[in-house]
Amino acid sequence: MPGGASRASALSPDRFLRFVERMVGEGKIVDEVFARRFISALFFALLNYWAAKQWDSGSRGKGPKQDSFPHTSFVRDMLSRGLDRPIIFIYLRRVLADHYVLNPTVVRVWERALLFLGERISVSLRPRDVATALDAARELLDSIVA
Amino acid sequence: MGLGVSHSPAGPGRFDTINLEDQPPVPVEHDLMARLLPPLQEEAGPVPRLLGDVVRVTSLRVIYSRLSGLPRDAVRSFLRRYGPDEVVERLESVLDLRSLAAVLSFIELLYGSYGGPRLSYLVNEEMEEPFVAVIIIPGCDWEAWDRIAKDVKAEMRRAGLGDLASRVAIVCLEGLRGPRR
CA-CA distance, B152 to B149, in Å (whole number)? Predict the structure, then answer.
């Protein structure tokens, strides 16, 4: 992979989002495995692209080549733009998709802090959520590109 | 003090304003500022700004100016209305608690009809450390979520609290299920 040219150009998720859109439109999200993999991929495609934009603009992260940007910075940046709904929707389901077996389940990223509400707040992931995640990803991408 | 705050029955799209032609004033039931915060010398209460035929309820800047003079213990005590000690303590390392208290008050004043907001946080899944405060609004759905989040974040920027916007997530509990399809 070239290191000098624009990393954002190489990591633009636009074509991938169109691919996911086609899969959703053709009813190819046939089970939970597909839903999990697509939602996780959407989140990380956006994170990679956002990080590449950071890199291209001169920001530096961690690691030997300073090219590792934490997901917490990505989430915070999206929140600063008022994109609370799309980023929280994708983030919670991405955590479920990659780290939990049950569905619905209670994801640890906020479970302990929410117990005082008197109920465990579960998150579910259904094949139709991929369509919602795709819409959310497009909204986030539009903001990152701008 | 005691500005009459009513929420329009016409739908969530009008929660941030009061239409004087359509609605008589309704006494507020939970005027947090009246109950808890000391009034500033130069004003007796939240001052509505006339904008044609509508009135802005108040501004985050006004609420923040009230809270900025409170001692730290009073701010912590105020925040414990919205979440347990452990949540308040852990959030102290994430953001300025006075700013957070101001945003909670602002949300309760404008969107209290969705249910009282509650305070939580998101943890970094690898380090298990809080990195974002979460304000949970119980009764609002997917559609209201987007509008409320964008309106509150815009208000933060207007109030000079833009840095806070990246450290607070607004979450509508009903909206977590996604849209009704």
Answer: 5
Interchain proximity A88–B171, CB inside 8 Å? yes
Nearest CA-CA distance, residue B23 and chain A, Å: 30
Pairing outcome for strands B54-56 and B17-19: antiparallel
Preferred mutation among B87, B177, B180 to probe A, highest tally of A CBs within 10 A: B177
B3 assigned to some structural domain: no
Within 8 A by CB and 6+ apart from B75, the residues are B67, B97, B98, B101
Give the SS3 label for residue A9: helix
Query: Which residues span the domain enclosing B109?
Result: 12-177
ipTM for the predicted complex comes to 0.89
Is residue B171 helix, strand or coil?
strand
- In the predicted model, what is the mean pLDDT of residues B162-167? 95
Residues B141 and B2: their CA atoms lie apart, in Å, by: 29
| A:B CB pairs within 8 Å | 92
Assess A82–B contact: CB distance below 8 Å, yes or no. yes
Domain ranges of chain A: 12-100+126-145
Starting at the edge strand found earlier in the chain, the sheet holding B168-172 runs: B118-123, B130-137, B168-172
Name the domain count of chain B: 1
Cis status, amide bond into A86, omega within 30 of 0: no
Residue A59 reports pLDDT greater than 60: yes
Residue B40 has pLDDT above 80, yes or no: no
CA B40 to chain centre: 20
Distance from A70 to chain B by nearest Cα, in Å? 10
| B5, part of any domain | no
Distance of CA B78 to the CA centre of its chain: 13
Average confidence score pLDDT of chain B: 76
What pLDDT is recorded for position B42? 44
